[in-house]
Design a protein that fits this description.
This protein is mostly helical. The protein has one domain. Strands 1-2 form a two-stranded antiparallel sheet. Strand 1 and strand 2 form a beta hairpin. It starts with 18 loop residues before the first helix and ends in a 7-residue tail after the last helix.
Length: 87
């Protein structure tokens, strides 16, 4: 597993998401056991410590922000991607 140990935390990446979607994203990230907080002003902060958390967060946010066409395109690429296994 990839971990970000010894890396200084950065200020983060800001993405504008409608407030109602932020709460849905917050709840989903909580279900995935990803550390996050959503303040009363609607600011969602997510703590990413492992590569898998970054992938899960991206996937969760993408579900709410991407168009149907983009989601279908992404799914189609996943189906056609060949993963090489290591011995």
């Amino acid at each position: 597993m990839c971990e970000f140990s010894g890396v200084e935390p950065s200020p983060g990446h800001i993405v504008e998401i409608p407030r109602c979607d932020r709460w849905c994203i917050y709840r989903r990230l909580q279900e995935l056991n990803i550390a996050c907080t959503c303040s009363n002003d609607g600011l969602l902060r997510v703590e990413i410590n492992h590569c898998i958390e970054a992938v899960l967060m991206r996937s969760t946010v993408q579900q709410f922000t991407a168009s149907r066409h983009d989601l279908l395109d992404w799914l189609e690429r996943c189906w056609h991607t060949q993963v090489q296994s290591t011995p």
